[in-house]
Amino acid sequence: xxxxxxxxxxxxxxxxxxxxxxxxxxxxxxxxxxxxxxxxxxxxxxxxxxxxxxxxxxxxxxxxxxxxxxxxxxxxxxxxxxxxxxxxxxxxxxxxxxxxxxxxxxxxxxxxxxxxxxxxxxxxxxxxxxxxxxxxxxxxxxxxxxxxxxxxxxxxxxxxxxxxxxxxxxxxxxxxxxxxxxxxxxxxxxxxxxxxxxxxxxxxxxxxxxxxxxxxxxxxxxxxxxxxxxxxxxxxxxxxxxxxxxxxxxxxxxxxxxxxxxxxxxxxxxxxxxxxxxxxxxxxxxxxxxxxxxxxxxxxxxxxxxxxxxxxxxxxxxxxxxxxxxxxxxxxxxxxxxxxxxxxxxxxxxxxxxxxxxxxxxxxxxxxxxxxxxxxxxxxxxxxxxxxxxxxxxxxxxxxxxxxxxxxxxxxxxxxxxxxxxxxxxxxxxxxxxxxxxxxxxxxxxxxxxxxxxxxxxxxxxxxxxxxxxxxxxxxxxxxxxxx
Length: 484
Prior knowledge:
Elements: H1 4-11, H2 16-27, H3 30-38, H4 40-62, H5 68-81, H6 85-90, H7 92-99, H8 106-118, H9 122-173, H10 182-186, H11 193-208, H12 210-228, E1 237-246, E2 252-259, H13 267-270, H14 276-287, E3 291-307, E4 323-328, H15 336-354, E5 359-364, E6 368-372, H16 378-387, H17 396-406, E7 416-421, H18 430-440, E8 446-450, H19 457-460, E9 465-468, H20 473-483
Parallel strand pairs: 4-5, 4-7, 7-8, 8-9
Antiparallel strand pairs: 1-3, 2-3, 5-6
Helix pairs in contact: 1-9, 2-4, 2-9, 3-4, 5-9, 8-9, 9-11, 11-12, 11-15, 11-16, 12-15, 17-18
Protein name: ATPase RavA stimulator ViaA
Pfam family, one: VWA_CoxE
Domain VWFA: 320-483
């Protein structure tokens, strides 16, 4: 079966400009253009996505099968293109009969066929074939236009849904816009209103329990303060100027190429304007940018920001790694403690987004379930994470073992681990503690938030830093009294 890409190649046309026009139309959309103006990060991410979409649509259109009627007409055109003048005149009845089956060229073809019968000369034959080709090009371009327009409408609806999700998430999670567009990435994927309901519910916990936000901020500072002093300052951006080659500077003639620049067109191309039979061919080549022209090339100055190299003896500043959050969802953590734990995870998600770090969440009791909240399906992952519970027993061993395995992945080498639990559990085996010590030597830090005043001190001593947030009635009343 003939596809659009093959037929476009044989007819020497391109759909690239058409899809580029679709991108311009998307950028001109009121909601999308307003969103781009709100922030550079969101605008840059959206434009990159549109560029990827343009290549995908080009590929989709190229591999879409041509309708059978148009395919048969194109094959018939190729057959008649190879015929000599006498044979073509002899087979004209067959041609007209085939065109009557639904071709846009039927009426014009009938008139040109009668002219060819009356004046069987080469010029009339070429005119018939050229006009037939123009009709096929028009039909194919209309088909491409329909496909591109359908894809544009689909993407526009998808982007507008994502923009709406991003704006709603900002109202809930980031009213001060500290994440610099990170919530745009979180809102990708299949946006469901139910996702925001759960996120809004747990974000409200941050207002009820200010200590959760304090722990998140304190943890964020601790991730920086302990090593930041020992690290050198980041390289300073420096503006440099370099020369780049450009076809827009007519310094030297380097060859001949196809284009639409009439000032550099070869004289042999202009000859077609003086021949009536070839005048349409000239205009077609001009519109398709296929006129043979002189190719000139020169150099232009360009400025570029490059980081200043570090001085001798300095080490480059390493980026902060991801955050692995392990949340206890056992039966003893049910109710208010689990709500606080998930609210703290949302606060840490804000921290990860503002610092452009990955946030990996593990829910555990006697089993472990993992979610990455900062990937392309982060909103759906967040909904699954907030809605999930185990109601089993507390076992730290599977969760910490899974976290240690995750730290071996190249993308998580610099990660820090936070465990949120009531820490009413068995002592950790010495082999696991030894693995944690080995990981500490590589720069990982292990943090703990105890949700019960009955947490076992021996378990908390395994971690580099720990906080106590008593979620019992006594602790909640005490914090409320302290705030009043």
